[in-house]
Amino acid sequence: xxxxxxxxxxxxxxxxxxxxxxxxxxxxxxxxxxxxxxxxxxxxxxxxxxxxxxxxxxxxxxxxxxxxxxxxxxxxxxxxxxxxxxxxxxxxxxxxxxxxxxxxxxxxxxxxxxxxxxxxxxxxxxxxxxxxxxxxxxxxxxxxxxxxxxxxxxxxxxxxxxxxxxxxxxxxxxxxxxxxxxxxxxxxxxxxxxxxxxxxxxxxxxxxxxxxxxxxxxxxxxxxxxxxxxxxxxxxxxxxxxxxxxxxxxxxxxxxxxxxxxxxxxxxxxxxxxxxxxxxxxxxxxxxxxxxxxxxxxxxxxxxxxxxxxxxxxxxxxxxxxxxxxxxxxxxxxxxxxxxxxxxxxxxxxxxxxxxxxxxxxxxxxx
Length: 367
Known about the structure:
Number of domains: 1
Radius of gyration: 21 Å
Number of helices: 14
Shape: globular
CATH architecture: Orthogonal Bundle
CATH class: Mainly Alpha
Largest sheet: 3 strands, antiparallel
Order of helices and strands: EEEHHHHHEEHHHHHEEEHHHH
Number of strands: 8
Strand content: 5-15%
Distance between the termini: 38 Å
């Protein structure tokens, strides 16, 4: 079959070992010269059975596993699972624990966005920004290690609250004060850079309709002009003021802008949490304090606005010690499936620029 240049069309396997996919994703591309005629994402190379695993473990045993669904935003998955169990068992979370959770969630959001920003620029050929963003991210994960004992898989949230209240608020204050000014440094390197603009502006445009039709959520949806942030529907954010960051162009540049400004909003949210937590006396609780679970029969789902979009945990209980079914809804899965639509007609050189702008983490896709 001949292409428009008179040459044969080519089928190209991009991945599953391409370094810029940051995971094992295979894109089956049909090319006419340098133009992409069609793209088919082929997933499943990283399947770990984290949903099926829940059926053979009790609730306490499964809790440490949920951080691994997305290893870059483990707190969000811990919260979603804990919240589902808390709703099922009618467990009331203390106000101080809610504020600690929000503070750590937003720190985790910043750490995730910083890693995305550094690696995205690296994929586009800019090396320096990665060293800047990883410098601040290192402060955050070092703090997480001090509080939870781990840099990635935290297992700090538990049913009814948090495992302990030794949270070193002065260190959090120093971290966010530093990040607030460092974001300006990132922007001075990136935002008005003519090479970055030429690689991202008007590239990979996703319209409002297309974003909704393909189930996008999070920054990718807000970059297409949809005012939707599920923190608005999460009760623990009720007393916190924040602005929803959005753009309207729907291109790679817009997705960058949304995440940059989300870092600033997260700093504002963390400061509000610090203001509350520094004015109360935190109780001294035991690490092993976990309420007794009754696990009544029922179906429950909980959700949270994670760095890559809506994270939803569906929990089905039949009254036994182990869940009957756990199902995860993840933002990266929908950001991956839209590739078959958004990559049509683009140049081969823009494929990784578009893919990287969607901030896909493959463990979220292969659960």
